[in-house]
Amino acid sequence: MSLWRPRPAQLARLLPGLWIFWTGEACLIHSRLGNSPWTVLAQGVAKHTPLSIGDATIVISFIVMLLWIPLRQRPGFGTVMNAVLIGIAIDVMLPLLPGPDGLITRLLFVAGGSASWESGAAST
């Protein structure tokens, strides 16, 4: 089985699963109550460069994949799609999320973000 020829059924699970997963990350960012380590790094890069959080995440992902070269690791289609969809989902979904006004609403974004991580991870 080729790492670059996913079957239609695999694509039907992979792409929505990644989107749901990274929409959850956008919810965590939006809550302003904490982030995953990867997103903390991307936010730091975004704060000090003209890149958005999503763009910074994509750039960091590809830099990490370049570091795989000495390890003789080749990324597959799913890995590359994950690297690209991370940034796109975060940048698309952040402006669409309603503003969390109070602590309860912000906690709901954390709960929703965590739940989407679980459902996204289960479908990939």
Commentary on this structure:
With 124 residues, this protein is an all-alpha fold. It has one domain. It contains five helices and no strands. α1 (8-31) runs parallel beside α4 (77-93), α2 crosses α3 and α3 runs antiparallel to α4. The longest helix is centred in the N-terminal third of the chain and has 24 residues, at 8-31.
Q: In percent terms, what proportion of residues is strand? A: under 5%
Largest sheet: none
Q: Low-confidence runs (pLDDT<50, min 5 residues)?
A: none
Overall mean confidence score, pLDDT: 88
**Span between termini:** 17 Å
Number of extended strands:
0
> What is the N-to-C order of secondary-structure elements (H for helix, E for strand)?
HHHHH
Please give the count of helices. Answer: 5
Helix content: over 70%
Counted up, domains total: 1
Q: In terms of structural class, how would the helical and strand content be classed?
A: mainly alpha
**Cα Rg:** 15 Å
What is the overall silhouette?
Answer: globular
